[in-house]
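Re-running the complex after MR caught last week's input typo. The corrected sequence lines follow. Everything else is unchanged.
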Amino acid sequence: MGDSAAFPSVPSRSLDTLWFQVAGTVCNLQCTHCFLSCAPSNHSHGMLSLEDVRRRIEEAGPLGVKEYYFTGGEPFLNPEMLAILEETLRHGPATVLTNGLLLPPERCARLKALADASPYSLDIRVSIDGYTPETNDPIRGEGTYERILGGIRNLARAGINPVVTVTEACEDAANAEGRARLLDWMRSIGLSRPRLKILSLFRIGAETSRLRGYQPWETLRGRTLDDDELDALQCSSCRMVTSRGVYVCPILIDEPAAKMGESLTETLRPFPLRYQACYTCHAYGVTCRT
Amino acid sequence: MPDVTKLAFFGGIYSNARALEAAIADARRRGADAMYALGDFGAFGPHPDRIFPILRDAGVLAIQGNYEESLSEGADDCRCGYTDPRDNHFAQLSYDYTAAKTAESWKRWMATLPKTRRLTVAGRRVLLVHGSPRKINEFLWESTSSTDFLEKLLADAEADVLVCTHTGLHWARRLPSGRLVVNCGALGRPANDGRTNVWYALVSFAEEVSVEFPPVGYDFEAMAREMEEEHLPPEFIETIRTGWWTTCLEILPAKERDRGRF
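Corrected-run output:
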């Protein structure tokens, strides 16, 4: 990647958000824009066990972690996912990023019970790529629109108001009209208080062959970032735990040099923003948090 | 006489002069030794300039909120920290009205206010902030602030008791170390609980430190009518009359959102 001194470095200001790659890179879908190219057969990062998560939460406590996020792959492929959430919700708020396919009514009822039993918030974030099968299915897979909708409805019926996540590529979500249409659609499927998260696309992983990879100019090389710009970057206040160690953020776990160590404490140091995905976070103000 | 010091803490006032007067009277009745206002004197309600003389005449000690910081610096928006477009839309209506109706002399006074205040009461180090010790507009919600996080926040800030506001919802948590976090809520609008009263925090310092949140009733109908006369958004007026939040809802965490009507 060239001379890292030419890239600005982000300091570690705090560890507010701790991410878990709880299902590794294993997914029951194979979305064409996935920045990790997750798939049923992608085992580059493995599942985390309840014990793994418990140990990390113990480690995280004295570091002042504010909230916990779970992603994959598909988190509900992890057979211990509910126990992991139960444990986590004793310590802080939790958010799960899911594709919504593994949310039958019984599991939704169980999630609602876990949420009610904790003083902390539990958020379930369901990803979808548009409000018709015609836009969603080519990205997420044949028939997935209806199945995702089923998961969202099961959550709503159980009393959980999910956060629906779309990428800005879909349905003009990045502009006000597109956003309004998405909110109307969410109301029409039974989400009376629609909560919407819009994510930028990272031009890495599968996305490079769907639309495009990064252009050479999409880089932070040679840039100087001020304190506000650095604070706005999620890597100033998060870390990502996978089966292979602790990474700087949820996006860069396929970059060996983005692994910062084995213990959380040793990763609380500056990180050079040498990746082109770092450009996206800076230019679009991306945070993977809700 | 038991040796108790009682301090009253007022959260966002949002131009609700009637609620402020009622809270001051209530705090005096309950024997408060001192009163503090933790910022955001304007926003939401009518006639922001009515607030400052009340604070001054009652001897309420003030710190800046994001509103006072923004108004005194001539900023374009309130820097409330919202991320959703609908939240920001209503926040902008509030801010533009308040900025236009606040006298320059009061804006200059706001610039002189400290952003934090430290007290030592009954041997406890007490820190007053608007949002959090590290950021004036950080939201400390009850359901998204882990106890581990709060312990570290107070340890880093060298405080035994932290009093904050900014969220508009009151809560308190005693931490395993014995430290105490108090979010004193807001006087300016109800707490999204279907009640028209508002709340403040009264903290008693003795051998132990204890917190209560007295409810404050006031003539909300008169406030609502004034808001109508000032052509403030009907959504704001509905909140004053019903006790349910209708705007700036997207920022609410799941648990807090579930408790409301909208």
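None of the earlier attempt is carried over here. The CA atoms of residues 52 and 133 of chain A lie 38 Å apart. Chain A has one domain: 4-284.
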